[in-house]
Amino acid sequence: MDANITELDALQRTLNHAIDTFRRELAAAKLPPLSLNATKPHPLDDCTYLPPPRLYEARRLALASIGQLKSLLQFPFEKVVEEAYGVYDQACLDVMIHTGLVECLAGASDRQKGLHVSEIQKALDIDSRKLTIILRYLSTGCWVRETDEGVFTLNRPSLELLQGTNGRRFLSNPHGPGLASALVEWLQHPEWKYSDSVTHTPVQIVHKTDLPIFDWLKTRPDDLFLVAEGIRSFGDAHVRGVIADYPWGSLEGQTVVDCGGGQGSLAVQLAKSFPDLRFIIQDLPEVVVLAKANIDSQLPAAQVEGQVLAETQDFFTPQTRKDMIGPMLTLNIADAAGPKSKLIIIETVSVPGISQGPNTLGPQIMGLDTLNDDAYQPVSPPPFIPANLGGLEETRRIRWIPDHKGVSLAS
């Protein structure tokens, strides 16, 4: 690449290449074109669909390019204003799901046309003038579409807000905005600013409690269920990739301990695909109750036959299981691990967001054209795209594990 190329030209080139690749891969996979105006989800929207690596990475690279281009082209003051109004994004989505608005729009006799705000007012008993402001705000984020003045219909993204979807379950957790509002106070707290204690977090500030988050949730079982559902929805949305990206079949006959396994969605899906493996889900007592119920509903015979079990584990005490295959890692697990143990880290890792110019890129570049369908591999970030696009530095973030625990890392 020309070392003198401008950011605008480099980002445009990257975006064009990513979109061209995405279009070709979409056709190769025999998938229909994307449309925001669709009244049904696209096959790519289904969390059980596993896209080819090149299609997946082309999409990620296109989105990364669009994000950089937007910040490059946008006036800084406009960016500030947009971020300030961002607090209303989730607030308006909450209106969609908590007032019945999304179901009301989904029930329109003509989903392409939608409903007039007067019809929505009659159905929901909400002021149509106020609804119009909220719906027009949502239309700027492509959640709804105004087909005529005062007439609104759902867009493809808003189908993910309907009952039974992962998006709806994820948004059901009511505590995110409140915790975010406490970040400044938490960072500057005179007694907590350098503390790693589980009792020195935004949870204690917002909810005025001395209890750690999970102990606090024990006192609020309804909230515990919503938080557990939100965590489960995130796992369900990515479970196909987790199943595909690790050679679970090579562990034939072994026991997999899912530490912090929540309601057991990953273990249940793995058990369906690999019946020769045995799974133990470990979590807090209140969550184990939910896990057992989930196992019974998904694999009724699994607990009786011992293929999938759920047990209580305090993650602040020594791990009792040895010679295990563990999809999550804590210090106590590393202490307990036997010589045949494998610890599989499944986590979102915060990596440096460094971007490189065109004349500083190394020779080992993994581009879209070099990917294949054999195994997933993230692309290398092109010029002016942050390095955290592909999460290429995960091992650097977990280097302290072998340094402190005597275990080795394998990619």
From TrEMBL:
It comes from Hermanssonia centrifuga. Transmembrane segments: none annotated. Signal peptide: none annotated. It comes from the Eukaryota. The lineage of its organism: Eukaryota, Fungi, Dikarya, Basidiomycota, Agaricomycotina. Residues 211-316 form the O-methyltransferase C-terminal domain. Pfam families: Methyltransf_2. GO terms for biological process: methylation. This is O-methyltransferase C-terminal domain-containing protein. InterPro entries: COMT_C, SAM-dependent_MTases_sf, WH-like_DNA-bd_sf, WH_DNA-bd_sf. Keywords: Methyltransferase, S-adenosyl-L-methionine, Transferase. GO terms for molecular function: O-methyltransferase activity.
